[in-house]
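FAQ

Q: What does a record look like?
A: Structure on top, sequence underneath. For example:
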């Protein structure tokens, strides 16, 4: 096998592994809202996290690009790869049209921001212990 063939095989295996891994992690989307019975659709979440107009008065919070949870959210909910999302936000920032969600480095930082920011929303691993005051508004399937 020559070098390029090996490189192509490694790249394909990494891609397949990332897809399999994305399907292995369950997610919840939680919000700091007053309503205990509130749900959002996948489409509404995509619009919200991609900066499109949304009827939801929620402020999205994202994990930074190094997070596996972010990768899973992007794959399962947004439906785009990280590189496509980064390209989109680069275009939006350059044109001055939209700003991406605030990014935080850890799940603990996201939880802290959620608890202290009314009407905020973020994605987390489904097994995260949630503090009082946060409501699950979406579960990945």
């Amino acid at each position: 096998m020559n070098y390029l063939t090996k490189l192509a095989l490694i790249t394909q295996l990494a891609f397949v592994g990332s897809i399999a891994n994305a399907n292995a992690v369950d997610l919840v989307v939680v919000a700091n809202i007053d309503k205990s019975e509130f749900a959002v659709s996948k489409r509404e979440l995509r619009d919200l996290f991609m900066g499109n107009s949304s009827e939801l008065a929620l402020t999205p919070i994202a994990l930074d690009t190094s997070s596996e949870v972010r990768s899973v959210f992007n794959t399962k909910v947004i439906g785009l790869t990280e590189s496509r999302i980064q390209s989109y936000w680069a275009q939006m920032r350059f044109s001055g049209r939209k700003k991406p969600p605030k990014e935080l480095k850890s799940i603990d930082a996201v939880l802290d921001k959620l608890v202290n920011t009314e009407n905020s929303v973020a994605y987390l691993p489904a097994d995260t212990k949630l503090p009082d005051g946060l409501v699950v508004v979406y579960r990945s399937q």
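Q: Is there anything notable about this one?
A: The longest strand covers residues 120-125.
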